Amino acid sequence: MLLRIKERNCVGTVFKSQNGYPVGYNNFRKRHFNPVVERLGLSLKTHDLRKFFGSWHLGVNKTDIMTVSKWMGHRDPRVTLSTYAKVIEELEQEHQDAIGHALVPRI
Questions:
Q1: What would the pLDDT profile of 14-69 be if each residue is shown by its tens digit?
Q2: How far apart are CA 63 and CA 27, in angstroms?
Q3: Which residue has the higher pLDDT, 49 or 8?
Q4: How far from each other are the two terminal CA atoms of the chain, in whole angstroms?
Q5: 3-state per-residue secondary structure call for the chain
Q6: CA-CA to 31 of 20 to 30 Å: which in 5, 14, 23, 101?
Q7: 57: Cβ contacts below 8 Å, ≥ 6 apart
């Protein structure tokens, strides 16, 4: 059985079932994601995971724009930049503020 699962190469699949098949978006959302989010009392949508992924790689991990754009499925990196530019600016401002606070002498 493990060999059959290994043979199923689900390219582009984030989650696989126990049988090795891709878990569909609606199945994942309804049976897994939404119940956990509700139990935790959060107001998240599955698209928020995508936004976090792009933002984290560009702002925190400093992954280059071409790579992130490719991972996000954007044909043009300008789409990625226009979508995440505000997030990147906010992260840069936070870093500048942190550096500023670290350099200010404490009285």
A1: 777 888 888 888 888 998 899 999 999 988 898 888 888 888 888 778 899 999 99
A2: 31
A3: 49
A4: 66
A5: CHHHHHHCCCCCCCCECCCCCECCHHHHHHHHHHHHHHHHCCCCCHHHHHHHHHHHHHHHCCCCHHHHHHHHCCCCHHHHHHHHHHHHHHHHHHHHHHHHHHHCCCC
A6: 5
A7: 63, 67, 68, 71
Tokens 């990625």 — which residue? 80
Query: What's the Cα-to-Cα distance from 96 to each of 12, 37, 55, 86, 91, rounded to whole Å?
Result: 36, 33, 18, 15, 9
Structure tokens at 36: 């956990």
Token representation of residue 85? 């530019």
